[in-house]
Amino acid sequence: MSDDADAVTDGGAVAESESAAASGGSGLASLRERDDFVVIATAAVLVVFPFLLIDVFGAIGDLTGFSIGGYSGLPSLVLIYGIVVIGFNLLLGYTGLLSFGHAAFFGSAAYSAALFSQVVPSPLLMVVVGTLVATLLAWPIGFVSIRRSGVYFAVLTLTFGQALYFYALGPGAWLTNGDNGFSDIAAHGLFFGAIPLEAPLTPLYALNSYTVIYAFTAVMMLIAVWVANRIINSPYGLIFEALGENEERVEFVGLNVFRYKLMAFIISAVFAGVGGTMFVIHEQYIHPTTGLYWIQSGDFVIMTVLGGTGSLVGPVLGAFIFEYVANVISGVSLPGIGPIGSLWRFVLGAVFVFIVWVFPRGVYGAAEDLIGLVTGGGGGDDGSEPAATDGGEAE
Amino acid sequence: MIPLQVDIASILLNGLQQGAIYALLGLGLTIILGTMEFLNLAHGALYLVGAYVGLLVFRETTLTNGLLYSFGVTTIGFDGGFLAALVVVPIVGFGIGLLMERFVAEPFYDRPETDQLLVTFGLALIVEEIIKNVIGGNTFQSIGPQTIFGFNVSQPVALPVVGLFPSWRLFIIVIALVIIAVTWLAIERTDFGLVVQAGTRDSEMVRLLGIKINRSYSLVFALGAALAAFAGLIGASIQTLSPQIGTDRALLPAFLTIVVGGAGSVRGAIAGGMLLGVIVSAMTQTYSQWAQIVLYLFVALMLIVRPEGLFGSGEVGE
User: Fold this and answer.
1) Chain segment B179-189, per-residue pLDDT in tens
2) Complex ipTM, two decimals?
């Protein structure tokens, strides 16, 4: 109990010092530095990611005989889901709300962007429209669902998502093409079609793993990371975190709990909307099952928890693991057992249960703990914020 | 043009049949939730197991893919008939429930609700994938028998007002209602039920009174699991089997049922299941495309207007 109190008072103190910093104190530089650091580090990873995944892993695969290299579309796909789960984590990892209906925002953004592309085939405007639709949809759904908590919240978000799914499958088929899926996506290239999305980024053969769409997605990812980092480190984000730890306390302080929860919900839906639009631009196809079905919502949950809630990196790591297992490991053939093939979901489920059971902070949290252990508590300082979240949850 | 009362009567009867399955599912889920405050997203997996165990006991099935097939096994099952399945399936469900309570639920009683949801969600995924990979992901025919207890149930029977109605479905309604009634009596009228009910209110107090509530927990969990498996068998006798039915036909309806009826309430699960069954049946017979949409929106509306459900106290599951 005293731990809890400490965490909250701590949070308050940090919020104060940071808002002071924002208003022009000497602490401004350090905050900026931190922001810059996150963005630059992300950019660096984004620059080497396709090379690592496709070329390096591919070379290792050639050497060992296990085909563990990624295909050319995979880096973009990982980033797309990464964008979604960064937002989802703001809701689950920080605010502590488990939604089983985020496919609704992902899918509705994808469908509306796809439909919009037939009028204006600009990828950038598609992102704007798709995200706008997801946001507008999240407002009423969030407004209604936030009033309930726990399993009721999960079921409410689920019901809205499923209603949309069945609408897209049946009565809405005139709009969505129903079970056949929607493939009339007319997105032309960037800059009024001057640069086709599928083209390689440079004419250099050695950099063939880098496509225009990857660069486009990477920029979106960079923006997503920057925005999420700003939110998490702002006083506003601290309130999200406080909500996840102890809702009553936040209410007693006099804050409007409902409003903050609703904002967390809508913000997470914005990320899902961006991801959904990028998904449809990338895949050039959307089906009710990939876009709106609750299993898709469940996949977001799996990615987030697998990687680790309560940190910026964790969920993206989860998205990578999920997509890597789904698309690459499923093609690997093991000696004696044969191809993994359709067993991939089983493998993933087993890993997921193991992670939830043993490492509630996910792969990233476990790695952090391990580093902390090796360096003799040095990592503890690094992970002070997520650790505080966890202390509250474990009680 | 069919007279209106025929429509209404057949809607009610079909609704009763669908509702009985929902009620069985909701009943199992709600007693586990109410007693242990444990959220079991693997409830649908128990339905799935019930359906497939039923399939194995009921008839010999020819495999066309899956791991067993690749090992050279082309047929599985015993051709034991439906009565054997009726006995075996709940026992298997009961056993799985005991194991699940001991090895999965117990370590998670003191952990956050979200962890319970996540671990059982993962477990459901694993069960579904095991069945998909071992027996094959294809769809199997339903396992409705020709005769049971000497009655021929393959022909429709003429009922007053409704007209012809499949006699097997009539049998399902009867047997499901009997099981529901027995469960209700066990919880409302026996000492065991009394302990369970008291545990729902205040488990610590029950423990202080010297009652071994952990034993009751195991029993309740196993009972809930047996009910889910039984629902799976009933469901499989009228609908086709595939690995997805665990989530599509069981897990989601079960959660909708208890949310409508009130989490933790036995009466609520029965009433909620019946209500949803009638809604689905009415929509299916009129605007079938909208059936699922209306179902989900109804539940959403219910949660907004009456959050505690039909019979719920509003305390469980928050």
Assistant:
1) 999 998 988 88
2) 0.85
